[in-house]
Design brief:
Blueprint: E1 20-32, E2 36-42, E3 47-53, H1 59-64, E4 70-79, E5 94-105, H2 122-127, H3 129-132, H4 136-158, E6 162-163, E7 181-183, E8 191-193, H5 199-207, E9 212-221, E10 232-242, H6 246-264, E11 268-269, E12 276-278, H7 279-286, E13 299-301, H8 314-321, E14 325-331, H9 339-351, E15 358-364, E16 368-371, H10 380-390, E17 397-403, H11 405-422, E18 430-431, E19 433-437, E20 442-444, E21 451-453, E22 480-485, E23 488-495, H12 500-509, H13 514-520, H14 522-528, E24 535-538, H15 542-549, H16 580-585
Parallel strand pairs: 3-5, 6-9, 11-18, 12-19
Antiparallel strand pairs: 1-2, 1-4, 2-3, 4-5, 7-8, 9-10, 10-24, 13-14, 14-17, 15-16, 15-17, 19-22, 20-21, 22-23, 23-24
Helix pairs in contact: 5-14, 13-14
Length: 595
């Protein structure tokens, strides 16, 4: 028999009444009632209330013991008196009358309590993560993460995928985010890179003749932290399939996501067949390629209104004549909203760095007019045109932004979310998935003004390969796609370019000579030259999936041992200094500039 426990702390019920049992766990909390001392004993599985009377020889020991000390108790299972039961606990109808106790490990004074779910500064939580993870909500999040990964693995095997592991030490890639570099001792002056993703390797698996691959892959990117992105390390469900088109990848992912989100959440999935939204349409209607489709607000372009002579809003008219765009958001039946509602939205927009949002509400007495600061600048005929193009009714309101396309898209995307939240339009009990498709193959780099790949350089362009308009590369669309849920991008994917000669042509547009491609992607180009199947894949982020399922806003709440915003592990004190001997072995000299 195990000397530490006969049962765990969630098992005991009335059926064990009068049995002598042994439990082990952490002292979750104590309640001293004078003649009686109650101790909630906690382990991974749950809580059991234990009680000791003041005539017990262990009473004073337990009085002094600090929370989070680890103890083992032996005692008799008793039925709790009526009125003292706790039906929120699986063990809430019983308690254990302590006969003997053994202290297995004493705890120091705690830098943060485990009992309760109070908010504590992030630096304290991360430095003492092992304590933070004992807290109920955090513990459940990590258990959920484990179950989600196990379920994904099981589902992928059912779908005919094989699990393989790709290398962690690889070569640096010129595309994407900044690499983490690892110096090579045996090859002085040369470096490995930790993989930003197993992109090239998973394609090479397809070239190697395997049909369907997946892994729960660790990925490493030297990026700044965000709420939905961990600095340093993250995990993704990486998958690739041979002899497939875009729709085949969609079918696999939709099956997986629907099954996964139904398994681990009671929220409704808005569309089990995910809508496909072309990139250009997403940017026009939502201002972003990560739209939250729970939000019913749609952005409309009304630039042409400001070419009319009977519109006298000269600020916008002048900007439009210089090439600016005007886009708007319509809110239905907001005529009774106070002026402060509209002014606060305008003020908020200015705080985001925009010039503000112009607005008015449609009303009708003798004729249709605009109520609000700029309503007087619009004739009845111009208002009727706005009503027709934007499907407005009397009593609806309109918020407008004017400027360069990317500026208008940015502020109206943010405004769309802000206004919907203010009006309570977002159903928190839904998951709304969608695909963003038809990404442009190339785009203009805002800093260098040169053409660069917009998404993934290894993607297959759309259309007849023999008739691609390479002289107008910005018109070329690619078989690239993102999957988005509730405004969170879960993954990017693509059908891959498996034709070396085509790859050379596309890379040349982005400024790469043939020799550059051969050098940077030698393994890939060489492999594709020996017969590669058409193939494609995707890699949904595990951390973001769990974040959505756990209803958390920050990815660190579902990560076991995350770094802080400065990419520091406060618990293990990483990154750390290394001694000169280690650096000498790696042929590295420090050149640190002092501030």
């Amino acid at each position: 028999m195990n000397k530490y426990r006969t049962h765990n702390c969630s098992e005991l019920t009335e059926s064990e009444k009068n049995k002598v049992v042994t439990l082990s766990g952490w002292v979750h909390r104590k309640r001293d009632h004078g003649n009686l001392l109650f101790i909630d004993l906690r382990d991974h599985f749950g809580l059991t209330q234990c009680v000791v009377e003041n005539n017990n020889k262990f009473f004073k020991m337990l009085e002094k013991i600090r929370p989070e000390s680890v103890i083992s108790v032996t005692g008799k299972v008793l039925k709790r008196e009526k009125g003292t039961e706790n039906l929120d606990l699986s063990t809430g109808k019983i308690e254990v009358s302590i006969q003997t106790i053994k202290i297995l490990a004493e705890a120091n004074d705690l830098p943060m309590p485990v009992f309760g779910e109070q908010d504590y500064p992030e630096d304290i939580r991360l430095k003492y993560r092992f304590l933070d993870l004992r807290r109920d909500a955090m513990h459940k999040n990590i258990v959920l993460r484990s179950k989600v990964i196990s379920f994904i693995r099981s589902e992928m095997l059912k779908l005919g995928f094989l699990e393989f592991q790709t290398p962690i030490l690889t070569s640096s890639s010129p595309e994407g985010a900044r690499d983490f570099l690892v110096p090579s001792r045996l090859n002085p002056g040369k470096f490995y890179a930790l993989p930003q993703a197993p992109q090239q390797f998973k394609q090479l698996i397809m070239v190697s003749g395997f049909d369907k691959y997946f892994q729960i892959a660790p990925c490493f990117r030297d990026e700044d932290a965000r709420a939905d992105r961990s600095p340093g390390e993250f995990y993704q469900l990486d998958l690739e399939m041979s002899f497939v088109e875009q729709e085949d990848v969609f079918e696999v992912i939709e099956t997986l996501m629907v099954n996964l989100f139904k398994k681990f959440s009671t929220k409704k999935i808005l569309n089990t067949k995910f809508p496909k939204i072309p990139y250009e349409e997403a940017m026009l209607c939502y201002g972003t390629d990560k739209p939250d489709l729970r939000n019913p607000l749609i952005i409309k372009d009304i630039t042409n209104i400001f070419t009319r002579e009977d519109v006298k809003f000269d600020i916008f008219k002048k900007l439009v004549s210089e090439g600016s765009k005007v886009r708007c958001i319509v809110t239905k039946d907001t005529k009774d909203k106070p002026r402060s509602f509209f002014d606060n939205i305008d003020k908020w927009a200015k705080e985001q760095g925009a010039s503000g949002l112009a607005y008015f509400t449609l009303e009708k007495t003798k004729k249709i007019s605009g109520k609000g600061p700029i309503g007087k600048f619009f004739s009845e005929d111009s208002l009727k045109e706005i009503m027709k193009s934007c499907k407005l009714d009397i009593g609806d309101s309109i918020f407008m932004a004017c400027g360069k396309v990317n500026e208008v898209e940015k502020i109206l995307s943010l405004s769309r979310d802000k206004i919907a939240k203010e009006l309570g339009l977002i159903n928190q009990n839904q998951f709304a998935f969608c695909w963003i498709v038809d990404y442009p193959m190339f785009e203009i780099d805002e800093q260098t003004k040169k053409i660069k790949f917009s998404h993934n350089p290894f993607s297959m362009p759309q259309g007849d390969i023999e008739k691609l308009d390479l002289k107008n590369p910005l018109n070329i669309k690619a078989y690239q796609y993102d999957i988005v849920c509730n405004g969170v991008e879960l993954s990017s994917g693509a059908i891959r370019n498996h034709m070396p000669e085509l790859m050379y042509k596309l890379f040349s547009i982005a400024g790469y000579e043939k020799n550059d491609v051969n050098e940077k992607f030698s393994g890939m180009i060489n492999a594709l030259s020996f017969g590669a199947p058409p193939h494609g894949g995707i890699a949904p982020g595990v951390d973001r999936i769990v974040m959505l399922l756990a209803n958390e806003k920050n990815i660190r709440e579902v990560t076991l041992f995350p770094m802080n915003q400065n990419a520091q592990d406060l618990m293990m004190m990483a990154p750390s200094n290394v001694d000169d001997k280690q650096l000498k072995e790696l042929s590295i000299k420090k050149d640190i500039k002092k501030n």
